[in-house]
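Supplementary Methods S3. Complex input for the iron/sulfur cluster-bound model.
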Amino acid sequence: MSENINNLPLLRATGLKRYFDVSKPLLNRLLEGKPRMILKAVSGVDFEIIKGETYALVGESGCGKSTVANLVVGLHAPTQGKIEFDGIDMTAATNPAEIKRLRRRIAMIFQDPYASLNPRWRVEAIVSEPIRAFGLIKGARAISERTGHLLTQVGLSGADGEKYPHEFSGGQRQRISIARALASEPDFIVCDEPTSALDVSVQAQILNLMKGLQNTLDLTYLFISHDLAVVRHMAHRIGVMYLGRLCETGPADAIFSNPVHPYTRLMLETIPDIEMTGKHRKPMAGEIPNPIDPPPGCAFHPRCPLAEDLCRREPPHLQEKNENHRVACHVTGKK
Ligand code: SF4
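Predicted complex, serialized as structure tokens:
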């Protein structure tokens, strides 16, 4: 899995935070005597993504992984922290031409191939929009040829460009989304749960397509997923998120063979049958705490079977457990 990796970070996130003010309007708060409410979706995350690799962020719904995806593609601005792409601080870039150059190099594939394609546009218009927006190719015929090539590259035919999204299955629509993502000739693609809306048999086809394209086009992926079976198939390295923070990060092989953080261990125990053994797995105990009012200390302590007094008082920080494998846990994270 590591043959494409040349150890240069293409993307680096440092101290990344994103808070959302979810308070009621001021008048309501004054009348009801309620304080402001701040949702800390991402509360200080650091990671690097090496050129040519797939880095997966995993965690339950609401852990902040999709907010990280949106921060990387610029759909949200960070509350604090920075994101560097190829050595350029994207969060400080103000020159419109430079922002456009950076944006061309970063594409996104969304979760829902039904909602992410404009139903009133022909596929050719959908796929070629980034080509036109970034002025990559001039002339209708050349753009049409390029669009046909992109459709072929994702396993569709050039003639499919004439059709509308509703004429395709879910898997085919996700292929159209991938063709559109490739249209700007990106080096980096943020894949936000790209197969979770698809049947399992179709998921495998799309994941294999994405792996093939990564090799052919030397792409780097940030892969967001709640599904560890999918992540195992795709990722070189993994970051496990819990309530807005990374609790474990390292090579995929190490995390699957020797998970260290209690949350990662529970996730691996409770995923539906990753080894295809047919065994029933017990669901993970407890609910994810409310991120507006997270527990003190380690946010996982109300669900953690190993929690101690210290866990209830002090948040643990990521520390090196093994080479390139970092864990935030007072009990299991020590060397
Ligand atoms: Fe569990 Fe404590 Fe580790 Fe948190 S720091 S995961 S509560 S043992």
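The pocket of iron/sulfur cluster is lined by residues 262, 298, 300-301, 304, 306-308, 311, 316, 329-332 (CB under 6 Å). Residues 27 and 33 are 10 Å apart (CA to CA).
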